[in-house]
Design a protein that fits this description.
By secondary structure, this protein is α/β, with parallel strands linked by helices. The chain has two domains: 251 residues, Alpha-Beta Barrel (TIM Barrel), CATH 3.20.20.140; 190 residues, TIM Barrel. It has an eight-stranded parallel β-sheet. The chain has a seven-stranded mixed β-sheet with strand order 9-10-13-14-15-16-17. A hairpin with a 2-residue loop joins strand 9 and strand 10. Helix 3 packs parallel to helix 4, helix 5 packs parallel to helix 6 and helix 9 packs across helix 10. The protein is elongated and about 75 Å long. The mean pLDDT is 96. The structure holds iron/sulfur cluster. The site of iron/sulfur cluster has 11 residues, from loops.
Length: 458
Amino acid sequence: MIVDTHAHLTAAELRRELDAVVARARDAGVGAIVTVGTDLVDSRAAVRLAQRTEGVWATVGVHPHDAAGLTEAALDDLAALAGSPKVVAWGEIGLDYFRDRSPRDEQRRWFRAQVVRARELGLPVVVHDREAHADTLAILKAEAGGELRGVFHCFSGDLSFAREVLALGFYLSIPGTVTYPKNDELRRVVASVPLERCLLETDCPYLAPQPRRGQRNEPSLIVHTAQAVAEVRGLAVSDVARVTTRASRTLFGVGEVGGARIAYPIRRSLYLNVTSRCTNRCAFCAKGRSPEVKGHDLTLEREPGIDEVLAAVEAEGGPAAWEEVVFCGFGEPLLRLDDVTALARELRRRGARRIRVNTDGLANLVHERDVAAELAGCVDAVSVSLNAPDAATYDRLCRPSVSGAYEGVLAFVRSAVARLPEVTASVVAVPGLDVEACRRVAESLGARFRVREYNEVG
Ligand code: SF4
């Protein structure tokens, strides 16, 4: 499912053939649409439309173009409208210094007032910011009081501004302009921020994506935006749809998301989540912030048995359907060494083309034997978290629960290089880490080297 988090279905050119527009959206995999109010009359229309149309939700608010003449009484009416269960946010509100259709002081006054109303109602805000980045952020920081959530719709800033928006706890909404050949700036933002903090939108009937640029936009065309984001991120469209739908669910409560997963696909690989236990407590580990990876919920109430893992793999089409099967998850799979080797043999028997284990490399110390020797023959590759060029840095970053951890990792990598077809030593590029020194360590062990992105705002 994809969610179009910002549409104007009340616009005459879409309203005239609404049933066909919504049907085309459903056929394209758009499971939910948020239609956005721009003034009191339009907000009333948006709420009515959402109430009578399955799969459509609404927002209420007054656009900065119409800020002049706005009254507290109109805000009272909007607040009453917001009582509808189909209303999921207050917006679009903000500042537009490009067109300046209302005086700037009026824009700022009513943006503030609407932010306060949204906060009082516990609603997220949908922010319109055009050439007014500094003032928009200043008002949100001053009025949010740490409780406000929201999204910068049709994000148009650079990476540095995106980081400020994310630091405020807000989301970025990516429109069809990401498909435009000259829009490298937005693609750079999309490539660099956590996708978990991005939404997709059409802003239809405006801003049609590249193949239909200049024509009337509609929700079904959001697939081109999802495709462009997938290309930028090196993901499948289904990955982008899942991650951004989960973000929409978190912010607006809109969009269907799946439950906790044992087997979870990303790109053309199937990952297996067999434990939440870990030998380390890495300072950069994401699991303390969220149980989600690429839109999948990896919460495990208990460790799944071998039969449960195999059933989960079969439910995803079986091991032969994937380029590789990877033991990964938010824990250390080799804590279940015997189960992992038994599973690997059975997955191979069922047609797995390639089997990889992502590991912290501490299993030799935990099991007090040479674990790499047991992986030989049933696993094709291991990816080992090296994470440091020396023991002191390792202990500081990874906070292992076993002593002699760094030397143990090095010994595991050495043994794995001698026994397995492919061994990669990886580091998370945390600020200040000497990545080149890590590379030299990996190469001295005969392993491949990979740098994983550290996303401090993730
Ligand atoms: S080894 Fe992986 S799962 Fe374990 S704490 Fe570190 S980052 Fe998290």
